[in-house]
Design a protein that fits this description.
The structure holds three protein chains of three kinds. Helix content of chain A is 74%, strand content 3%. By secondary structure, chain A is mainly α. Chain A is globular and about 50 Å long. Chain B has a two-stranded antiparallel ribbon with strand order 1-2. The longest helix of chain B is centred in the first third of the chain and has 32 residues, at 2-33. Chain C folds into two domains: 1-84 and 175-265, Rossmann fold; 96-173, no CATH class. In chain C, a hairpin with a 2-residue loop joins β4 and β5. The chains are: A mainly alpha, B mainly alpha, C alpha/beta. The interface between A and B is large, with 43 and 46 residues.
Chain lengths: 310, 291, 265
Amino acid sequence: MSARWATLIILAVIIGTIPWFFPSGFYFRVAALIWVTALAAVGLQILMGQAGQVSLGHAGFVGIGAYTMALGPKLLGLDVLLCLPLGAAIAGCVAFVVGRPILRLKGHYLAVATLGFGMLVTMVLVNEVALTGGPDGIRIPRPELLGWRIRGGETFYWITGGALLIGVWIALNLQASPSGRALAALHDSEVAARTVGIDVAAHKLRAFVIAAVYGSVAGGLLALMNGFVTPDAAGFLASIEYVTMVVIGGLASVPGAVVGAALLVLLPQTLTFLHEYEQAVIGLLIMLFMIFLRAGIVPGLAALLRRRPA
Amino acid sequence: MGAELLQFLVSGLTVGAVYALVALGFTLIYNASDVVNFAQGEFVMLGGMVTVFAVAAGLALPLAAALAILVAVAVGLLLHRLAIEPARGASAVTLIIITIGASIFLRGVAQIVFDKQFHQLPAFSGSDPILLAGAAILPQSFWVLGGAVLVFLGLFVFLEKTLLGKAVLATAANRLAARLVGVDTSFVLALSFGLSAAIGALAGILITPITLTSFDVGTMLALKGFAAAMLGGMGSPLGAVVGGLLLGLLESFAAGTISSAYKDAVAFVVILAVLFTMPQGLFGRRSVERV
Amino acid sequence: MTGRSDALLSAENIGISFGGLRALDGVGFAARAGEILAIIGPNGAGKTTLFNIVSGLYRATEGRITLDGKDVTQAPPHRLAALGLSRTFQNLQVFFRMTALENVMAGRHLREGSSLFADLFRLPRARRANAATRDAAMALLEEVGLADKAELPAGSLPYGALKRLEIARALATNPRVLLLDEPAAGCNPVETEEIDRLIAQVAARGVAVVLIEHDMKLVMRISRHVVVLNQGRMLAEGTPEQVRTNPEVIAAYLGTHGVKEASLA
């Protein structure tokens, strides 16, 4: 069995069985939050881990997806469920237009440009109060499918879990495909990639658009789940969190992004008993993980397991 | 109209000077290690907060300021010793995430040790605005600008005229070569952390009477300082200063003439425009791809 | 010599400056199908710069490059690769995070009949492309003698193996013109001989091979035509024999001091 199938099966088993251990309905909400966050992180893994292009503005696309869920019904009278693909299309188009000039930049310069993009999105969301509700956020209509109202933590658990599974499947497909190889190649050496015929600019742009679509779908699901969205979803801190998730889980690893997302969503939830010490402990843990598992949790643990004879 | 422009100019330069100091901090550590230290803003926060609480505890302002700088330097050195040094050899992105962790950690500690309130320091020499050609200028602005100029000059003399400074420059230019000629690059990195912390703390002390401080002011400042450093060209101290001042001016004029809500947007659009035409920033090293 | 009508790749009157420094001036060569052309010259002569221009990485300040009669002076590297030009690098540009096999597979990029859509959803088309690429890459590893190292991370291979890996990757593009930048540098005599044979094989298939090499024995043995550069200019060109006996070439290589010594000996 390939590592690809193993990853998918393990993830499916986890999603399918952990509800048995939930002591209360609240846990469905937390787990669903992990799955959507992980979906956004997997998108960023394609861009950062596979193509090697930094983005400090990933949350901007999450915000586009989330706000489309509110603005589509409000402005265009669209069904809220239709707004999920609409948000993905908008995010993809924005990424296509913005990515073209931005992706010519490299390394930290690319980081600052994507940071700027994220800031612009947040600023519009905060300042266009009449349209977006400003800093207080905006409501999302309750979705309905064939007369059935979609609601409740459990329902969203299965929707987001399914979405994540599809997202991971696609990311793993890409990684093992000709297109994924082109991304890995330009990640390692742009010069060599160009001389074997890889159109580096076009492939970077593809990765950027794919990441944006992931972010947007995740944002849309998040908004649907919460029934509400604020500009924080698109903010700089959220972008930094996505980057941290991808790196801490293991840049090169698709499941790493899921593990990183789970960790960063769970930490604040489980450390609430620490009260005011919570933030300090989270910061400390991030540092410790990175010091001791430099390549990230998933590759780091895999290496440890390999070293120890079974 | 002239008075208004002067007003924008001074307030832009004042904020810009702080950005420039943060950007300088980024540059020093980046040159010694390729690490973008996202905890840079927390040094600024420490400068302001320690001074505020030391003054409240009865310490005279100069002593409180000195104490704040000492605390920040100690934190900077500890950060290097306990978090960066143990991860030596890790990739730059791993180290950057460590500094992000450090930034969250320091913010968390600050809200325990201090509190979550906003705090102000009294202006160093009164808060009566000085009228200059029709513009009302806070005396504290002169403290900020003066302090920044002193740091720029001090740093210039240190880098250009002292042996240790030359070791820092050599490390920036080529780490391996510097090590080969006997520069202790690990010491240079520790020094860079200490120096960056001191510069950041000073910025925090000088600006607090104007902008207030709290445990979480560092994030926004780090972000702006980073943007300024990139605008100037990462790795160039001159670029950091020019980038910082330019960013402050852009924000100030955008706020005054276009929209205060979108001042950051204007600033970022300009930064993007600059980077599209000069992908290495204003003073960054231009590199031909060597293969 | 340049601009011969039967040339597959020809560079005419190439010049480039870096910040006022004249790195190349009036340099040219013509490579024909099935022939091995060597470019030699002392360090700093501009050989690699010439390769960088011909392969589209640098833009020449003046001059004209044609590939199979088409003007490709302004073409970017990936377009040139599509037109049949491939190369290796003096300072290795291996994909270090990939395995040896994946490196060569990446070289098949242009020959893979897949699409992004098929790749994302792992459609049969993508799977077929992957399998075909793997087979072709494996055959090439076989050819350069690295088949047993296929699954090893490229980063773990020794220098000589990486040199051959780059050649395999370049061959994976099915080039009609192959530029090799010091393929035998850092290789032991046995490896050098293997590379020597490999280059001859490739040329025998009808590929135009252009070679930068310091190993004079190798150059003299396998190349049909030699171009000598010195300080960015053409110093001489001709058959290996003509070049070897050219006094200017000897002077450039050994220095005028060396010539004196040589004449005294």
